């Protein structure tokens, strides 16, 4: 697959693919004219890379963990890294859930206040 095909199928830019190559996360072979060609599993690999980045991992952490995530084969060090990242993500989820719950409370209070203000305005206009 050529770079544009992989980029379109994975929902990323060709620039992202070149960046992943620079970081050693993705490989391609060059044609005689210099065009990049990727293996058929490149789209799935790029999606994994995107998921790991979205989880907040650095490119260094992605490079260390991607072989395990992609193949399912892991060393003890990789498993420890994956577990540490999972713990970090769990903490992030708890923090975000707490923040969302606080926002919900503020929104509910603001809605209640708006209804009270509207009722007060309505009552004073009929008086």
Describe this structure in words.
This protein has 127 residues and is mostly helical. The chain has two domains: 1-59, Multidrug-efflux Transporter Regulator, Chain: A, Domain 2, CATH 1.10.1660; 74-127. 74% of the residues lie in helices and 3% in strands. The chain is built from five helices and two strands; from the N terminus they run ααββααα. It has helices spanning 3-10, 14-22, 42-54, 59-71, 76-126, and strands at residues 29-30, 36-37. The chain has a two-stranded antiparallel sheet with strand order 1-2. A hairpin with a 5-residue loop joins β1 (29-30) and β2 (36-37). α1 crosses α3 (42-54), α3 crosses α4 and α4 crosses α5. The longest helix is centred in the last third of the chain and has 51 residues, at 76-126. The radius of gyration is 24 Å and the shape is elongated. The N and C termini lie far apart (74 Å). The model has no long low-confidence stretch (mean pLDDT 87).
């Amino acid at each position: 697959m050529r770079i544009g095909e992989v980029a379109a199928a994975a929902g990323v830019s060709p620039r992202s693919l070149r960046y992943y190559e620079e970081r050693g996360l993705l490989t391609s072979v060059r044609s005689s004219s210099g065009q990049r060609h990727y293996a058929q599993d490149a789209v799935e690999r790029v999606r994994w890379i995107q998921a790991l980045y979205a989880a907040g991992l650095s490119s260094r952490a992605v490079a260390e963990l991607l072989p395990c995530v992609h193949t399912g084969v892991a060393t003890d060090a990789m498993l420890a890294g994956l577990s540490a990242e999972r713990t970090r993500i769990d903490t992030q989820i708890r923090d975000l859930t707490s923040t969302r719950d606080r926002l919900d409370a503020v929104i509910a209070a603001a809605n209640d206040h708006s209804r009270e203000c509207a009722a007060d305005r309505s009552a004073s206009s009929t008086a």
